[in-house]
Automatic annotation (TrEMBL):
Region (Disordered): 1-22
Coiled-coil parts of chain: none
Annotated 4Fe-4S ferredoxin-type domain residues: 186-215
A Pfam family the protein falls into: Fer4
Keywords carried by this UniProt record: Iron, Iron-sulfur, Metal-binding
Naturally occurring in which organism (per UniProt): Mycobacterium simiae
Protein name listed in UniProt: (4Fe-4S)-binding protein
GO-annotated molecular function: iron-sulfur cluster binding; metal ion binding
Amino acid sequence: MGDKLPGRLAQHPTVRTVRGRQPRRPGILDADWLREICLDAGADDVAFARVDDPELASEVEHVEAALPGTKSYISLVVKMNRDNIRSTARSVANQEFHRSGELLNETAHRVVRRLQDAGYRALNPSATFPMEMDNYPGRIWVVAHKPVAVAAGLGVMGIHRNVIHPKFGNFILLGTILVDAPISRYGQPLDYSPCLECKLCVAACPVGAIGKDGSFDWLACSTHNYREFMGGFTDWVQTVADSTDAAEFRSRVTDSENASMWQSLSFKPNYKAAYCLAVCPAGEDVIEPYLDNRKSFLDLVLKPLQDKKETLYVLPNSKAKEYAERRYPHKRVRVVDGGRPQPSATP
């Protein structure tokens, strides 16, 4: 068994115990057994994808760096409570995002422990944060959960760039486990899209980040929705640094904005919108109220978010600024730079 060891090491009690037992040689993971332990651990759905799937080629170098020898992905789904996400009280929605993320990470942790105890090497990157911030503003995620879920057959990306599960809709969070073994059966991509192309996500986005033609303005989305994440935090700090005194700072940043940033720093960062998720009626468990009475659904779910008075964060001279000012005159539009590096002045 293994290399010949120096005498002193060979006589160590741990070495003698291990060498005296039957060696474990983990083989192909049984898909049914693996699915069962994932569901028992807390997942609401699970499917598997191959690392060498051509659709996931862009992930290979990153997962290989994280867990050398990765052979398979285990894609996990945890449901979120829909009415929490739909509430105009965004503290409720953010608590749902954060709590669901905690449950998903706990689920993945339990599964990895089972795999480790069975003799496999496995790793569960965070479903959300923390990420590899040393790489910011480049790629900060260890593995892209969305394309893995799509390849495994757990849903299809909607025009709002969120995965829509055929049963649970887009009210889900996704996680991925890397494992160093093949699995006996892999999922296949869905042969249809659960997206209804209803364009409610287009109507709900307060900064016009989602186009009717399916286009997506990532800068508009990230500048507003991620205001209290990486770039927005940098912009806020720049405002502190640029202000000559407290009076000037408070003239530039409202008390509620400061309190909101404090809350995100203290209790996990809060999303400003994510309204595209809130209004999506797709999914077998979700669609019935929309089918019963679409006007009532819009009045109940979409209109309160559109009518809400709030601050919208946009880049200068952007389409998002023009859209927000035209479409939502009752919302305060604030121009920020998103914390992005500014070009140096020419001497």
